[in-house]
Amino acid sequence: MHWYVDVLKKYAVFNGRARRAEYWMFSLISFIISMALFGVDMMLGISPVLEALYGVAVLLPGIAVSIRRLHDTDRKGWWLLLALIPVIGLIILIVMLAKDSTPPNQYGPNPKEVSAAPAW
Q1: What are the Cα distances from residue 64, in Å, to 11, 57, 74, 97?
Q2: Do 6 and 98 touch, CB atoms closer than 8 A?
Q3: 56 phi, psi to nearest 5 deg
Q4: SS (H, E, C) the chain
Q5: What is the tens place of the pLDDT at every residue in 99-118?
Q6: What does pTM read for this prediction?
Q7: Closest CA to 40 of 29, 31, 51
Q8: Residues 54-85: pLDDT tens digits?
């Protein structure tokens, strides 16, 4: 759960890097919350209002963590626009987001190495 909260704390931080675990855990938890809210909306018999409000609330942090994840693979955030290309663009973007971190690059040190260092 701390991955999800960490992303929300960096609400609109578009610089730096995000580890795979940070990105994918945020995506998973967001999906679970969205499905739960959709279920609540259906039980109440209303259109998916709660789910839509939640989607709007996490849109900016989702974009920010996606851009930081692309930075971690040494790509510019503009690659996120591949999602606008039906099917093939989304597949290519998922492959990019699933790649392992690169060594220190122009966006900063490798977050795996930074978090693995002991905090003395």
Answers
A1: 7, 13, 15, 13
A2: no
A3: -65, -40
A4: CHHHHHHHHCCCCCCCCCCHHHHHHHHHHHHHHHHHHHHHHHHHCCCCHHHHHHHHHCHHHHHHHHHHHHHHCCCCHHHHHHHHCCCHHHHHHHHHHHCCCCCCECCECCHHHHHHCCCC
A5: 998 888 888 888 877 665 55
A6: 0.86
A7: 51
A8: 999 999 999 999 999 999 999 999 999 999 99
